[in-house]
Amino acid sequence: MKLSISTICDRATVREGLLHILGAGVTTVTQNLPSPLMLDVAILLTIEAEDVGEHWLSVVLRHEDTDDRLGEIRAQFEVPEDQVRKVDAPLGNVPVSIPLRTFRITKEGFYVVDVIVDNNLMGALRIVVHAPEQPESEQNGSVQDVV
């Protein structure tokens, strides 16, 4: 099995066996904290004949500095034996969209999204999360009149 595509994106969907990706390659996010990470992970696995059987896909979001896990999404899939071709050629692709909206980000910093298949790390995606800069008037807690 090969990880053909893994990217953090604005949105990913799967329809009729096709992976649709919007805004791929996100590496930096600015958002109010704490809040959910409003992104998806688009994954495309290429299946080979030797991959017949059940498999587990895990996507783990963790803080890079502390290695604290913010969460994990797991999915099971199966490559049926009757789909195996006689020639040594790829069987096809498994398109997957994983929403990161279920993960709550509480602090700025570097995060890593690990893509794991059958307990093997297939890829790791880095993303940095920033909080928006506060206007100086809000930082000082003062209110200014606008004329």
List keywords for this structure.
single chain; 147 residues; mainly beta; Immunoglobulin-like; 5-stranded mixed β-sheet; 4-stranded antiparallel β-sheet; 1 helix; 59% strand
Outline:
The protein is mostly beta strands. The chain has one domain: Sandwich (Immunoglobulin-like). Helices cover 3% and strands 59% of the residues.
**H-E string:** EEEEEEEEEEEH
For the secondary structure, the number of strands is 11
Strand content: over 45%
- Name the CATH architecture: Sandwich
User: Could you list the spans in which at least 5 consecutive residues all have pLDDT below 50?
Assistant: none
Bulk shape: elongated
Largest sheet: 5 strands, mixed
Q: What do we call the CATH topology? A: Immunoglobulin-like
- Which strands sit side by side, in order, in the main sheet? 3-11-10-6-7
**CATH class annotation:** Mainly Beta
The CATH homologous superfamily is called: Immunoglobulins
- Helicity range of the residues? under 10%
Number of domains: 1
Q: In whole angstroms, how far apart are the ends?
A: 65 Å
Look at the structure and give the mean pLDDT: 89
The class by helix and strand makeup works out as: mainly beta
- The Rg value, from CA coordinates, equals 20 Å
